[in-house]
Amino acid sequence: MALDPYARLNWRGVVANRRTIEMLEITGLRSELGTLRIPQGSYTTGVSASGGTHAGGGALDISVRDMTTTERDHVVWALRKTSFAAWYRPYLAGVWPAHIHAIAIGDRELSAAAAEQVVQYRNGQNGLANHGPDNGPSVPITVYRQDVDMSYYGPERWDDKDFERFAKKVGWFDDVSNLNNEPVTQIDAKTSLAYTHQHATDADKQATLAVKKADEILVALGKLVPPPVPPV
What is the pTM of this model? Predict the structure, then answer.
């Protein structure tokens, strides 16, 4: 049976459903900041200042401790790119520490308060009681479709139902034949696809790290200069 996107898991010290976890892990890859710290997850009413937004699924708070302003803003952008309604919340004495608040758009287990924040996000507002303007980065609003995209875990984690959906979606999977006629080295098309996906994913990660390291070296040597800021 396929993975249940709404299975609740204990993860990084909080509770969240699998769909939300997958979305945040994609965000971590996009932000290139590695593992993001999560002080508050979903399905909890333990923090009164949250106003019930974390009582259902799809809700997360991300710590901004040790992040620069640029890194923090980049995380908000990456969260929005992955289909979170996300805002930076600055420190508010006696209420909350500085953090990023995120709600997974399209989560079917959102609390009423979280669903209202998604409405505000769609309306260009800040998700707070004052319905102020959104001051975050402009990102096209999408709804993450784990059941269709299967974009993070990939075929190495799919079961038969996932492969059936894939075959229907692409229309050619069942026609693929194995051209290797050596019985000892033959593998089925499903396994081949899984290996290809995993190696491509690993290669992409290594290439990203290599480019980043090369840029750091060039900056240190004074050989890499940021592009000029275009005139306003």
Answer: 0.64
